[in-house]
Amino acid sequence: MRNGTPLMIVSKPYYNKEGATMLYPKIGIRPVIDGRWGGVRESLENQTMRMAENAAKLISENLKYPDGTPVQCVIGCTTIGGGAEAARVAEQFSTQNVTATLSVTPCWCYGTETFDMDPNTIKAVWGFNGTERPGAVYLAAVLAAHAQRGLPAFSIYGHDVQEANDDTIPDDVAEKILRFTRCAVAAGWMKNKAYVNIGAVTMGIAGSFCDAGVLQKYFGIRAEWVDEVEILRRISIGIYDHDEYEKALAWVRENCKEGFDKNLGKNLPPVITKSKIVPADKDWEFTVKMTLIIRDILYGNPRLDEMGWHEEALGRNAVVGGFQGQRQWTDWLPNADFTEAIMASTFDWNGPKAPTPFATENDTCNGIAMMLGSLVSGSAPCFHDVRTYWSPEAVKKATGYELEGVAKQSGGFIHLINSGAACLDACGKATDKNGNGVMKPWYDVTDKDIDNILDATTWNYADLGYFRGGGYSSRFVTEAEMPCTMIRLNLVKGLGPVLQIAEGWTVHLPDEVTDKLWKRTDYTWPCTWFAPRTTGEGAFKTAYDVMNNWGANHGAISYGHIGADLITLCSMLRIPVAMHNVPEKDIFRPAAWNAFGMDKEGQDFRACNAYGPMYRNIR
Fold it and tell me: Rounded to the nearest 5 degrees, what angle is found at the Cα of 328, between the Cα atoms of 322 and 332?
């Protein structure tokens, strides 16, 4: 109150895509030491602190946040020899948004007196493998303490003995530190952000039923809903950046080549012809406005504040989202295929940008899979229908072609196709220094990459039998043979969320073979042939078995073989992995998982059930 008048506190808009200062999730490095003063501790101070500094240097030089800046580390303000110093460092970290801690030591230390007892941090311990001081003994002791107290921690221990004065970080240790950090940063990045549902459930697809409790408890994500009518309101009133709209529309007209129209020559029934409200020659204008507005809904936009739309300028603090579309929108308005594709890609009319995981048909489960893949790979996520398994025999019957390479090794391949959120990067036309087709983190994408991707893509008019309101779908074929990982989050009654992972490769087929197979489905949608890496056993016996064991009609692919990272991240979130083809030697989970039996898969289910969701409610 001031002079009897209530004060109104107006919040400052938070534009997490527009360069505003944000509190990054950081890694706290805890230098742990033998607490005996009088010679022992003093002799270890420099070595212990060098371990911490070297770990921080390794992390910051090799890992980036999704916005392209180096991952930040906070080194403890003191070496930790006992409970008082552990508390000092914990207090320091509490002001720095430390998501995860890495305790490092070359020596014996006092387990429960020095360990990280904060229940909200993700934990790892690196015990130096040397003979002069028993760092490995402390590692084993403190891991026992973590297990006993219900605070699971990852164990990092080098394979080979090092000399006491050796400051290098062995490759196997570096790999585990970077994997732990990459996944902990992913968990920290998504925390307290939102999944923004634009619309609701699409055509009864189970994954479209957004479970707010699952998002909150397992991912720390808020579920938000915005009715699709909000897009129409903003278009009607003009709540978007008009200057950027003109820029974006000009870019679309110059760069987005229109392909063939499959509707030409068809005698469409009145139920379709009467349904289209936006004139066909205005579809691009409507679609570009819709794209700008959806981005603003997710992230906010300072320009709207300048225009007097303060509430709209705030955005929803999104990290992922989805659009319902079918059918209440697409039965009379242009579809969101362009919107979904450009959101998920690493560029738009403003140049390179961070991709947004944005799910077609608002399949929340697949949107989360897109988010997980994008956060650990740094590349654009691709949404797909897991459409068809093609056996070698079926391909030969349909085309006369005998499979070769990875497709032959996998016993066939799976056709991945969808009209919507297939990132344009998935055409494989960005190249590395050797000219190989790749998908890059957005901050490595060049103007030449963008031009090549756009040249490989046409925008074909929607099939009016399915999308009465029209619109444009991207059309390309993935020609590069790239390593990639297919991912799916499933919700199972009585079990909760589980993840499926299939590492493999995109497949390049001869043009005439691709053409014959592609024409058997929707020829206007982007096309990717995928061969999972098979093992000859179980769900990975052949590509057919992968398709037959997949948990839903959708999947998401990300660039690279990132299954090991996803397994580590899921163990942090307490989500069991129900299906994967990652070699056992690459599986890295908290040490306490070893107490839950000898089979790796069973360990995971039992441990996740015992510990419960990472952000579970107090019981």
Answer: 115
Query: Model pTM greater than 0.90?
Result: yes
- Determine contact, residues 400/590, Cβ cutoff 8 Å: no
Instruction: Give first-to-last CA distance, the chain, whole Å.
Output: 39
Select from 55, 19, 48, 22 the least CA-distant residue to 33. Answer: 48
Cα-based distances in Å from 494 to 218, 366, 497 = 15, 20, 10
Q: What is the tens place of the pLDDT at every residue in 354-398?
A: 999 999 999 999 999 999 999 999 999 999 999 999 999 999 999
Q: What does the pLDDT read at residue 7? A: 40
Flag residues of the chain having pLDDT under 70: 1-21, 420-421, 617-619
Convert 296-325 to b/e letters by CB count within 10 Å (16 or more is b).
bbbbbbebbbebebeebbbbbbbbbbbbbb
DSSP 616: P
542/538 Cα distance (integer angstroms): 9
- pLDDT given at position 21: 56
- CA–centroid distance for 564 within its chain: 14
Which amino acid is present at 424? L
Token representation of residue 77: 């303000």
Coil, strand or helix: which one is 361? helix
Nearest to residue 79, comparing CAs of 61, 92, 98? 92
Tens of pLDDT, residues 339-357: 999 999 999 999 999 999 9
For β-strands 351-352 and 554-559, DSSP reports them as unpaired
Active site amino acids: 361, 385
Virtual CA dihedral for 381, 386, 391, 395, nearest 10 degrees? -80
**SS3 per-residue string spanning 120-172:** CCEEEEEECCCCCCCHHHHHHHHHHHHHHCCCCEEEECCCCCCCCCCCCCCHH
